[in-house]
Amino acid sequence: MDGATHTSDRRAGIGKPAISANGSIHLNSRIVIDDEFLSCRSSVRRFRRGEVIAGAGVLVDTFARVYSGVVSASTMLPDGREFIVEIIPKSGLIGELEVLRRQTLSLEYRAGSNCELHFFEGRLLRDMYASDPCFREKVFSRALARISELELRIIANAASSLQSRLASTLLRLSAVYGKDAANSGDELIISQNDLAATLPASREKVNQCLRRLRESKIIDGGQGKIRILNRKALEACANGAVSVK
Q: Rounded to an integer, what is the distance from CA 2 to the centroid of its chain?
């Protein structure tokens, strides 16, 4: 995985992703890595916002933990548009399934903000997978949960208006950013291009929806930042109960 602006070695662990109180697992929940890796040596790399961390089609034998910031995982649609499949928050993992399967990366990973990643050797993950049945079960259940949520997003996108999809996306990103103790989740740092690619939709139409939400005092911000002012109203938009004109 290339594109690092700084590299060093340090010993670091991989944190466990949060699970909501009702037991649901979100798409950005990644494989749980237990305390066995706390003493393993990692390579620390820092990336600036927009830098490519790893390209699709690359065969790697390392996986990484997001120590700070966020990372976007994207692919290209048949019509040439970028589709951001997932935004990975602090403590999320990158490349773990590909390392286990010894496959090339299927997505391109890019720094969604200035971020720091800790990289680990793939053999550590494979050894644990081979020797620990409980860990294998965790890997399987997390993978199914991520696939299930992605399917639900695709179905919801097909049946919802752009305004509803945008509101749902802002709420989902709020939960992602809220995983960082330094962020309440009310302020999202994301460019309009990336927001349009996350939906996916044209930037022009997304800008129109954002303008209506700003005029209704539901959100505020600019220059790559969006601040949620009225969460209840945004939730009503996401559910289709309110349409902002």
A: 19
Omega prior to 133 cis, within 30 of 0: no
Sheet architecture: strand order including 225-228: 187-189, 225-228, 219-220
Supply the angle between the helices 203-215 and 162-177 in degrees, to the nearest 10. 80
What's the whole-model pTM score?
Answer: 0.75
Maximum pairwise Cα distance, the chain: 57
Closest CA to 61 of 88, 93, 96: 96
d(CA 125, CA 94): 12
**Residue 92: C-alpha distances to residues 42, 139, 169, 232, 242 (Å):** 15, 14, 19, 28, 33
How much of the chain exceeds pLDDT 70, in percent? 79
Closest CA to 206 of 149, 154, 166: 166
